[in-house]
Amino acid sequence: MNVLVLYSEDKKGDILSLGTLLYEKNITFKALPLPEEWSIFDSEDLLFDLHNYTHSLFLVSRDHIQNSYFIFAVAYCLGAHEKTYLLDTEGGVYPSFWQTRCSLSRSFGEFIQLLWTEKERWERFLKRLAAKDALAERDVEVSNSGFLEAVAAGDTGSVELYLEAGFSPDLRNKKGVPALVCAIRNSHFLTMRALLDHGAALDLKASDRDTTALMDAASLGEAAAVQELVERGAQLDQQSKDGQTALILALGKGDDQCAIILLQAGANPDIEDKLGMSARKYAQLFGRTKVLAYLG
User: What is the span of the domain harbouring residue 267?
Assistant: First the structure.
């Protein structure tokens, strides 16, 4: 993010204070005085400077608002830059059009806060742009379907780029299966972790089986995935369309380790499925002695 500061001569004394604040925020800038008369206005040099910056700030007194060089420069910046700011501590009145297109600040503090927020947004934008370029270099489709294909294939590197490019970690495939659940069903646990690190919702249910990521991990007997999902705060007692909980599914798989992880986390062993069976009853039916010993 590069900021071009254009100021009138009577505001020269404020540039040092403004420059100090910008420096403290690690914002690159260049300060240029605006000429007093259009006749000495070197438009080619100005256009060159304007073209090489992403953002612009005008620091002028109310006496300069109607000057032609000022109007020209503001109009150019509105079209050429990502954002244009007006810093006016004198209470000047500006055309309504300018106020809707420019960010008007009445104090240095207010302006710095606006610019800092914009800096963070701009850096996110550049990061998304770089990620999209990297995806293009991998010759993959930069689309929702491309992202979901990468998840299903366990291409964690590409998945991370899609996420950095702004794709939602909660996208669903055509069957309504969330990306997180898809990663777990395909045993791609590094991909699972990448999705979680980018804010994937833990408890979204897949439309086909009405199961969450935790339920599918338990049904596969993937203890490490179950442990991580539990530690990240997954809901323990959600039920599938058949009324099965993650604990019931772990017992159905015959995986005592997953079952005990869930019990230690506080899973309810007495919730019944549509057959009227609970995890406790299944443990008794299948003779899962370790689980029964834990249940007491």
Answer: 202-296
Q: Read off the pLDDT of each residue in 266-271 and give the average, rounded to a whole number.
A: 97
Q: Give the Cα separation of 124 and 138 in Å (integer).
A: 21
Q: Are residues 143 and 112 in the same domain?
A: no
Both tokens assigned to 147? 């992202």
Do 217 and 191 fall into the same domain?
A: no
CA 117 to chain centre: 15
Residue 129 lies in a domain: no
Distance of CA 54 to the CA centre of its chain: 22
Per the structure block, which two tokens stand in for 250?
A: 């772990």
CA distance 258 to 228: 11
Q: Among candidates 110, 121, 49, which has minimal Cα distance to 83? A: 121
What is the edge-to-edge ordering of all strands in the sheet holding 55-59? 28-33, 2-7, 55-59, 83-87, 103-105
Asked if 150 contacts 162 with a C-beta cutoff of 8 angstroms, the reply is: yes
Q: Write the pLDDT tens digit of every residue in 74-86.
A: 877 888 788 888 8
Residue 293 CA from chain centroid, whole number: 45
CA distances for 107 relative to 89, 150, 159, angstroms = 6, 48, 43
Concatenate the DSSP letters of all residues of 86-123 into one string. EE-SS-----HHHHHHSEEESSHHHHHHHHHHHHHHHH
* Same domain as 163, residue 115: no
d(CA 205, CA 236): 13
20: exposed, middle or buried (C-beta count within 10 Å: 0-12, 13-18, 19+)? exposed
Backbone angles phi and psi of 2, in degrees to 5: -120, 130
Give this prediction's pTM.
Answer: 0.74
Helix (H) or strand (E) holding 27: none
Q: From CA 223, how far away is CA 270, in angstroms rounded?
A: 21
